Amino acid sequence: MSGVVVLREETPEDHPAIRELLASAFKRSDESELVDALRKDGDLVLGCVAAIDERVVGHAALSRMRAPFPALGLGPVAVAAAYRSKGVASALLRWSLARARDDQWRAIFVLGDGVFYGRFGFRPELAAGFGSPYAGPHFMALALNGALPAAEGTVDYGPSFGRLKSA
Questions:
Q1: How does strand 139-143 pair with strand 107-111?
Q2: Is residue 31 in some structural domain?
Q3: Which residues of 116-138 are buried (b: 16+ CB within 10 A; e: fewer)?
Q4: Which CATH number is 101's domain given?
Q5: Of 12, 21, 49, 135, which residue is the least packed, with the fewest Cβ within 10 Å?
């Protein structure tokens, strides 16, 4: 990597670059449309950017979830192909999770690879008691600021996720 990775909140000026990054990373426009919809619906709580030489090379979205306690959903998360396997995603996630802790959220849920997200403390067993359209072995939770306030209930991502097309 030729520059220093700067981690920060997204700004409106970043939106075109984030759209391009997401479309490139997922090889379709659905995820970029999802993030735009989350912003429009007011459900995007934190858009986290990794930038190198002022170029957006990574993005993580944290959006409000419907849950029995203050919870966020993580995703989509993307890193530009040229910067994968170089620690950018890990740095971006550590920074994002720290921000969520600082903002007093109680949990983050994610649907993803257990090996990767497990490194950050996400566990499927923490999400197992929650009914969700995304329930299953890849649906995981991370408790923030202590234990989860409840071990069961219903959780769901914002309405924008329901409009996301399948791959």
A1: antiparallel
A2: yes
A3: ebeebebebebbeebebebeeee
A4: 3.40.630.30
A5: 12
User: What is the three-class DSSP state of 52?
Assistant: strand
- Would residue 119 count as lying in a domain? yes
Q: Is the pLDDT of residue 6 over 70?
A: yes
Per-residue pLDDT for 26 more than 80? yes
Contact 89, 48 (CB under 8 A): no
Average pLDDT estimate for 104-116: 96
Q: Give CA–CA dist 161/96, Å, rounded.
A: 20
In a domain, 163, yes or no: no
- Helix residue ranges, H only, the chain: 15-26, 30-41, 88-102, 114-118, 124-127, 159-162
- CA 28/CA 18 separation, integer angstroms: 13
Residue 165 is assigned to a structural domain of this protein: no
What gap in Å lies between CA 59 and CA 16, rounded to an integer?
12
Residue 30 CA neighbour count, 13 Å, CB half: 13
Number of domains in the chain: 1
